């Protein structure tokens, strides 16, 4: 971390780290989509 930073920057970094940790737990629990499943889910949005 830089010597000076704002509270907003700190909160943003903490939220990013929390989301990464959540994603890692979901992967370990098998809660994820394969590439093919993700493509099918996104198909309707990418038209």
Describe, in plain words, how this protein is organized in 3D.
The longest helix has 22 residues, at 7-28. The mean pLDDT is 93. With 47 residues, the protein is mainly α. It has helices at 7-28, 35-43. 66% of the residues lie in helices and 0% in strands. It has one domain (7-43). The chain contains 2 helices and no strands. The chain is elongated and about 45 Å long.
Give the helix/strand layout.
Elements: H1 7-28, H2 35-43
Structural class determined from secondary elements: mainly alpha
Unreliable residue runs: none
Radius of gyration: 16 Å
The outline comes out as elongated
H/I helix tally: 2
**Oligomer, anyone?**
single chain
Secondary-structure element order, N to C:
HH
Mean pLDDT: 93
Strand content: under 5%
Number of strands: 0
Q: What kind of sheet is the major sheet?
A: none
Distance between the termini: 41 Å
Helical content band: 55-70%
The number of domains = 1
């Amino acid at each position: 971390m830089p010597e000076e930073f704002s509270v907003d920057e700190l909160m943003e970094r903490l939220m990013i780290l929390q989301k990464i940790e959540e994603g890692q737990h979901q992967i370990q629990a098998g809660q994820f989509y394969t590439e093919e499943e993700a493509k099918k889910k996104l198909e309707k949005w990418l038209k």
